[in-house]
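ESCALATION

Customer reports they have been waiting on this structure for their group meeting. Please prioritize. Original submission:
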Amino acid sequence: MGADGFEEPAEGWGKSRVRAAFMSDGLDRVRGFYDRFVERGAQVTQPLEKQVWGDLYGEIVDLWGVAWMFNIAAPGGWAEGNESA
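Update from on-call: job pushed to the front of the queue and completed.
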């Protein structure tokens, strides 16, 4: 899944308005990807932690300037089975 973000203009190499989203209900899988990005030097812009909607969510920017969003659907959380949004 992709998303756009327009906080600032995309100027130069490694700058992008596109964000990649990694969404799953598999805690170990998503946590593993998130942790590997961070171990390799990605900048954490929002820690992976429980949010008000019930899911775990976090954001990083990788070494190439690509922003990533990670969402882990919690049982009974907002993202689990919600198709009306």
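Sent to customer with the following note: The longest strand covers residues 43-50.
Escalation resolved.
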